[in-house]
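In response to the reviewer comment on reproducibility (Comment 2.3), we provide here a single inverse folding case reported in full, input and output, so that an independent group could reproduce the run without further information from us. The structure tokens appear first.
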């Protein structure tokens, strides 16, 4: 499993999601095709050259418009397909900050109370209200992985973590490995990242208890999310959940065809 971060200047949590064996043990997720990351707003010329060297041709930005407009990805000069795919559909971090009254009106209109932005509430809302966006993200990864793709949000752990967990589940990776891949984020999001996000948290969409919200990736939280989907949708819960929310039925096969390799090689 590729748990080590890739040293891309201006990022803290850029890594390859490949390397894990599948539950059957006969194959593993190949490396060098699908990457996950935190924000790409501070990429340097060297960082862009390193991203180019990785063969990445698609960048999927999972952030809301309020985050993207204040901290736009520094991908100028990169020959990539840049996809804006806000998982929260621009509800969490709109173009302008909402007043308390506007938040109340939005809650009445959407049925979503966005005032509680604790980690557990964020994950519940993501699964309950934004399944269509998650399915779209998986589709884009499936369509782009042959050429190299990186998907990211601000910290690269919550929206990015759920999409990564879903992709790995569709590839047949076991729960233990998925939780390990998710929780390793906490190792990378410390020190410099916390200092950086503290300077920019209002623009990056980080609220509540900053240290926890910005850096914590407790495996029990992801386990609860996956367990809740399995409880509702059955043995192949994630795939059924994504299909119900509009995932292309061909996406799981595309992912497996492009990313799975015999266990003894990438």
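Designed residues, in position order:
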């Amino acid at each position: 499993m590729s748990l080590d971060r890739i040293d891309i200047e201006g990022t803290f949590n850029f890594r390859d999601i490949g390397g894990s064996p599948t539950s059957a043990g006969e194959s593993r997720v190949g490396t060098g095709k699908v990457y996950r990351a935190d924000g790409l707003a501070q990429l340097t010329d060297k960082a862009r050259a390193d991203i180019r060297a990785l063969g990445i041709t698609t960048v999927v930005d999972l952030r809301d418009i309020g985050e993207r407009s204040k901290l736009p990805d520094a991908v100028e000069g990169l020959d990539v397909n840049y996809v804006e795919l806000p998982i929260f559909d621009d509800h969490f971090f709109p173009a302008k900050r909402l007043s308390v009254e506007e938040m109340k009106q939005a809650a009445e209109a959407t049925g979503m109370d966005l005032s509680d932005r604790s980690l557990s509430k964020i994950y519940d809302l993501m699964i309950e209200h934004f399944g269509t966006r998650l399915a779209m993200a998986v589709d884009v990864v499936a369509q782009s992985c042959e050429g190299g793709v990186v998907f990211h949000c601000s910290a690269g752990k919550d929206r990015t973590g759920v999409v990564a967990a879903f992709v790995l589940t569709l590839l047949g990776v076991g729960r233990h490995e998925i939780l390990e891949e998710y929780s390793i984020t906490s190792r990378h999001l410390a020190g410099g990242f916390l200092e950086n996000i503290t300077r920019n948290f209002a623009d990056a969409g980080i609220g509540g208890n900053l240290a926890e919200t910005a850096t914590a990736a407790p495996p029990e939280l992801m386990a609860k999310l996956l367990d809740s989907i399995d409880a509702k949708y059955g043995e192949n819960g994630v795939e059924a959940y994504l299909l119900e929310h509009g995932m292309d039925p061909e996406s799981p096969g595309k992912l497996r065809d492009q990313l799975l390799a015999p266990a003894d090689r990438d």
